[in-house]
Structure formats: structure tokens, C-alpha cells
UniProtKB/TrEMBL annotation:
Keywords tagged on the record: Membrane, Transmembrane, Transmembrane helix
UniProt organism field: Hibiscus syriacus (Rose of Sharon)
Keyword Membrane on entry: yes
Bilayer-crossing regions: 20-41, 53-71
Protein name from the UniProt record: Uncharacterized protein
Length: 115
């Protein structure tokens, strides 16, 4: 059976606004995380000081949070929004039910199927 090749897009992609402001904000947070790591590493309590293991535990917790934050920035660095093109859905499909859905007129009170 031969499949029909439809080239109509179902979504329109737009880049998010405010990328520069977000990148400046993210960079400042990254610098803050690095400064916290440097402080924790430079001021580890000596072997017999009270709270040494708590300090080391906090260092590992902050390292884990920092690495998680860096990994999740890859997703947020280039934000795009997808807007569906509903009229193209009915044109791409041969299903009569889908064609009927696209032809319905949406009114304030709901859907008017008689149109």
C-alpha cells in the first residue's frame, strides 16, 4: 500500500523573546554557584574540628545541585514555542471525522457543529 506524503507543517515554531536577559541572569547564577563551590572547598574544617562531616555533606549537596542546574540549562538556553496549525491537520488527513472537527466554528458558548 502506498503512503501519501504530506508536507504541510502541523506546528509553527517561534523563538522565545528575552533570550539575552535570560542568558545574563543564568550566567550570574552560574558565577554564584562557582563562588559557593570555591568557598566550600577553600574553608573545609580541619580533621578534628566540629561540623567537618556536615560541611563535607553540604559541599556534596551543593555540587549535586550545581551539576543538575548546569545540565538543565541546556534545555532552557534556546527556548522555542510551538503553535499548532489546526487547519493543516484536516488537510493532511483523509479521516472524515477529523475534517469535521476542523470545520467546526468555535463560539463563545462552545462549539457549533451545524456550521
Amino acid at each position: 500500500m502506498e503512503e501519501k506524503s504530506n508536507k504541510l507543517p502541523l506546528f509553527r515554531t517561534k523563538e522565545a523573546k528575552g533570550k539575552v536577559a535570560f542568558r545574563v541572569f543564568s550566567t550570574s547564577i552560574f558565577v554564584g554557584i562557582c563562588l559557593i563551590w570555591a568557598y566550600r572547598l577553600a574553608n573545609i574544617p580541619r580533621a578534628n574540628e566540629r561540623g567537618r562531616w556536615l560541611w563535607i555533606g553540604m559541599l556534596f549537596a551543593e555540587l549535586g545541585f550545581g551539576f543538575y542546574w548546569i545540565l538543565t540549562q541546556a534545555i532552557r538556553w534556546n527556548v522555542v514555542h510551538y503553535y499548532p496549525l489546526k487547519h493543516n491537520l484536516s488537510l493532511r488527513s483523509d479521516d472524515p471525522i477529523l475534517k469535521g472537527v476542523a470545520r467546526q466554528e468555535w463560539t463563545r458558548g462552545g462549539c457549533n457543529p451545524e456550521v
